[in-house]
Amino acid sequence: MKVRVLFFARLREQVGSAGEEVELEPGATLEALRAQLAARGDRWSEALKPGRALRAAVNQDMAMPATLLKAGDEVAFFPPVTGG
Amino acid sequence: MGVRIQAGDFDVSAELDALTAGRAAVGAIASFVGLVRDVNEGASVGGMVLEHYPGMTERSIEAIVAEASARWKVLDATVIHRIGPLAPGDRIVLVAVAAPHRGEAFAACEFIMDYLKTRAPFWKKERTDQGERWVEARASDDAAAERWEKK
Q: Tens digit of pLDDT for each residue in A8-36?
């Protein structure tokens, strides 16, 4: 299945992309997507290191690593927000 | 209820007038205006660029305003957040809440602002005398939002 992945702010600069379509195993979780992208290598593993500095949203709602993804989902990775 | 994300400035007085137009039940308006400072974390700031996640930004702020309206008697609210390049002294954000009494207006305004700081997907990149840098999230902002969690 395919999902749409977006990157914002520092993560967008680190991976050098604002977004792309990613092919995933059916039934994959948000954490599986993160691990698949992080396995691409240095700047990807650094940008997508799990922890407090990494946040994610699925279909524009904040999401946890165990969130199940489905075909066509919009998944975004970004750092903690700093607006206001 | 109005949530707007825009590059341009806003007129605070006109926004407050619009909140009360034709609404005699409004007894109080509390408003907050956030500004760009010329110094942050020990560096001189020449300007910043605000990035956001279109769509999620509006959704998240609308959800915060709805939560404030469920907690307090809010008659109307306006939230405006600017994006793009901003200079020191520029307005960044307006939160204005109209309510029957000041207690509700003050509380809802502060609640919306505290939650916006930790939940709405905006990111600031500063241009300083030491180069460009992404602003780091502050633990004090998380603590401010957590004060409102129901115990």
A: 999 999 999 999 999 999 999 999 999 99
If you compute the radius of gyration of chain A from its CA atoms, what whole number of angstroms results?
Answer: 12
> The whole model's pTM is what?
0.94
User: Is A83 in Cβ contact with B52 (below 8 Å)?
Assistant: yes
Burial of A65 (0-12, 13-18, 19+ CB in 10 A): middle
Evaluate whether B128 touches B48 at the Cβ level (below 8 Å).
Answer: no
Contacts of residue B102, Cβ cutoff 8 Å, sequence gap at least 6: B27, B28, B30
In terms of CA atoms, which chain A residue is nearest residue B138?
Answer: A82
> Is B116 near chain A, with CB under 8 Å?
yes
- C-beta separation of B31 from B97 below 8 A: yes
C-alpha–C-alpha distance, residues B98 and B1, integer Å: 10
Whether residue A81 and residue B136 make contact (CB cut-off 8 A), yes or no, is no
- On whether any CB of chain A is under 8 Å from the CB of B48, the answer is no
Using a CB–CB cutoff of 8 Å, tell me whether B140 touches chain A: no
Residue in B81, B93, B122 nearest the CB of A82: B122
Residues of A in contact with B53 (CB under 8 A): 6, 8, 57, 60, 76, 78
Burial class (CB in 10 A: 0-12, 13-18, 19+), A5: buried
Q: Look at B42 and B73; give whichever has higher pLDDT.
A: B73
The three-class DSSP label of residue B39 is strand
User: Which ipTM did the prediction report?
Assistant: 0.94
What ranges make up the beta strands (E) of B8-107? 28-35, 39-40, 43-52, 76-82, 84-86, 91-99
